[in-house]
């Protein structure tokens, strides 16, 4: 089994004002299905009101993330699944519920995690 990251940036989620309640209902339903299926690891959205902090090895902190990287925002779900095909199927279900395409990535296996 591998862990898959299913995600989207905030800008991808363009939903008409009257449709937000349905998006919330549908996306929560898919997450509930993943939990019931035993494949849900964790998920959520980046709190865009809390600015990122860059923490150095010496413990010093500066406001903001890597200056050269695009901002990290949007929603994320991590599922543990037996195959890439299963991950694609779950990503499609999440895309339908959220009304936007989802990016799919697989985590490298690490026996310590």
UniProtKB/TrEMBL annotation:
SUPFAM superfamilies: Dimeric alpha+beta barrel. InterPro entries: Dimeric_a/b-barrel. This is Transcription initiation protein. It comes from Roseateles chitinivorans.
